[in-house]
Design brief:
With 85 residues, the chain is of the alpha+beta class. It has two helices and five strands. The strands form two sheets. A three-stranded mixed β-sheet has the order 1-5-4, with no helix packed on it. A two-stranded antiparallel ribbon has the order 2-3. It is globular and about 45 Å long. The protein starts with a strand and ends in an 18-residue tail after the last strand.
Length: 85
């Protein structure tokens, strides 16, 4: 079984992601994509001082949440990049 890893910014206090095993299972079963997204969505909060945390989707799959600083190659904004503020 694969484990989903989600990378968070150092200042993140909440997260929203998709469980990859749930999406794959839905694909194999022929579930409509919109329904698969709804059932695979995982949301929650993470303590600001936590470097690593674990969340679980409704099916019980483990999702590892890890903080990561912006890579040095992306220190300067680039107009072609999506900017989240």
């Amino acid at each position: 079984m694969s484990i989903t890893t989600v990378w968070l910014s150092p200042s993140a206090s909440s997260f929203s992601c998709l469980c990859e095993p749930c999406l794959e299972s839905a694909r194999v079963m022929g579930v409509l994509f919109v329904d698969a997204l709804a059932s695979a969505t995982v949301r929650g909060a993470i303590a600001r001082d936590a470097e690593v945390a674990v969340a679980r989707c409704t099916a019980g799959h483990e999702i590892v949440l890890r903080r990561s600083a912006r890579p040095s190659s992306l220190q300067r904004p680039d107009d072609r990049q999506l900017q989240l503020t």
